[in-house]
Amino acid sequence: MTDDWVSLFSGGKDSSWALYRALEEGLDVSRLLTIHPAGDSYMYHTPATELAELAAESVGIDLVEVSPDDFGADDVDDAGAQGDAELEPMEAALREIAADEGVDLAGVTAGAVESEYQTSRIQGMCDRLGIDLFAPLWREDPIELAEAMFEAGFEIRIVQVAAYGLDESWLGRRYDADALAELVDLREEYGVHPLGEGGEFETYVVDGPHMDRRIDIEYDAVWEGDRGHVEVGDARLE
């Protein structure tokens, strides 16, 4: 048996960076675990998770997916209780992985940056499972993190925006040094987080040093007055 790690993976920049750093550290990441919430979520990145299968193929690591049918948080009103309920299918999936023959589950990677709400629940889950948490972004400087992603060669696209100062022109835009500079200015005016940590924007990584092939995406921009997202029409590995 080997020490197996599972990467909690949405395909967004933060979970992708956590995966990349884990691989750089020599952790044996044997599976990616993608959660597909049916709608808005307190715990998970939601847009464009349908691209996870392509991303996993490019990364070369087996993918485990949890569907909306596995969620039981629809009727929960309290935010804390909803977060706990949303965690249940992830924990169940990890228990199932750990029960596989030949698997010695050592830990999970997570892309949490500042959210105590998410991190405390994931850490509690790890404690219950008796495994470690690798969270290399946790409480690091957001601008330095973004710059490290750019320097490593991540190609990051913005797939959802929901904040003052971010209009339709940001949908599909590359998240790079120029975009970061504008976001820093918007932080002064509107409080936008440079990494979108408060849900101001969401991203997807279409290429990077941990991937063998780039994901090519065709999409439509859907704008809803003060927020918007990209609707993926077609996607393929180049």
Please give the structural blueprint.
Blueprint: E1 2-8, H1 13-24, E2 29-35, H2 52-59, E3 62-66, H3 79-99, E4 103-109, H4 116-129, E5 132-134, H5 142-152, E6 155-161, H6 177-190, E7 201-207, E8 215-223, E9 228-237
Parallel strand pairs: 1-2, 1-4, 2-3, 4-5
Antiparallel strand pairs: 6-7, 6-9, 8-9
Helix pairs in contact: 3-4
Written account of the structure:
With 238 residues, the protein is of the alpha/beta class. It folds into 2 domains: 2-134, Rossmann fold (3-Layer(aba) Sandwich), CATH 3.40.50; 142-237, putative n-type atp pyrophosphatase, domain 2. It has 6 helices and 9 strands. The protein has helices spanning 13-24, 52-59, 79-99, 116-129, 142-152, 177-190; strands at residues 2-8, 29-35, 62-66, 103-109, 132-134, 155-161, 201-207, 215-223, 228-237. The strands form 2 sheets. The protein has a 5-stranded parallel β-sheet with strand order 3-2-1-4-5, sandwiched between helices. It has a 4-stranded antiparallel β-sheet with strand order 7-6-9-8. β4 (103-109), α4 and β5 form a beta-alpha-beta unit. α3 (79-99) packs parallel to α4. The longest helix has 21 residues, at 79-99. The radius of gyration is 17 Å and the shape is globular. The termini are far apart. The model has no long low-confidence stretch (mean pLDDT 91).
